[in-house]
Amino acid sequence: MKREKGESANNIWDKEGFLMCGLGEKNKIIARIKYFRKCCRWSRQRIARGYADCDKWNMCRYLQNLISDMLQDLRDKRHSSPGFLGENYTNEDGILVNDTCHEEWDKILDRMIFLWRESNEYTCTRQNPYEEEYSKAHKEFTEKYGFLGEKLQTEKELEENRKRGGGGTVHFMDELPEYKEISDQYFAEEKKIEEYRNASKDEAMDMLKEYFFSLWD
Predict the structure, then answer these.
(1) Per residue, what are the HEC states of 91-111?
(2) Which of 8-17, 83-92, 122-131 tops mean pLDDT?
(3) In angstroms, rounded to a whole number, what is the distance separating the alpha carbons of residues 181 and 163?
(4) How far apart are CA 124 and CA 117, in angstroms?
(5) Residues 70-87: pLDDT tens digits?
(6) Are 36 and 30 in contact (CB under 8 A)?
(7) Taking residues 2-13, what's their average pLDDT?
(8) What is the pLDDT of residue 62?
(9) Contact 16, 39 (CB under 8 A)
(10) Contact present, 187 and 161 (Cβ < 8 Å)
(11) Antiparallel, parallel or unpaired: β 96-97 and 89-90
(12) Residue 116's pLDDT is what?
């Protein structure tokens, strides 16, 4: 779902939450009333202790969004910059000043914001070029053979499943020649993107350590 400008991904009262909570429920109105009550409880928890139960369910994503949003707000609205940055010089009035620190601090904050957002799979700018083709192939595979490829099970596998009392053997797209190439291409690219996101996270952590005590205004 596309977010409104300035809307935080950590907003408890996110429209997507209310839309998703009714999926699979017989009575969507009751489901949304229950979700509304949860949002009230989570909001009280945020006020009382600074975080809600829902923040713990995916803490890494919560922190990725929170840190990048706070850094952006600091960058846009701050009143000062660390004095150890830039260069001191004497102006025409004979006063020692340092106004070059602001531009340097802007660049550092911009880099940190960029890295935190790149580390997040939902805001990363790197996209899989095979996404559309893979999704089309996966849909076709699911229609033919089932979501977990259950229609590809052999008689031997079916018999073994019956002996176990249920369950099934999972089959994947890359087991079939017609889907192997796109499957391999897609997951190879996913691996590269994951490595890029990890590298972004590591650099973001290093910068956070370096400038941690300078993050104030």
Answers:
(1) CCCCCEECCCHHHHHHHHHHH
(2) 122-131
(3) 35
(4) 6
(5) 999 999 999 999 989 988
(6) no
(7) 71
(8) 95
(9) no
(10) no
(11) antiparallel
(12) 98
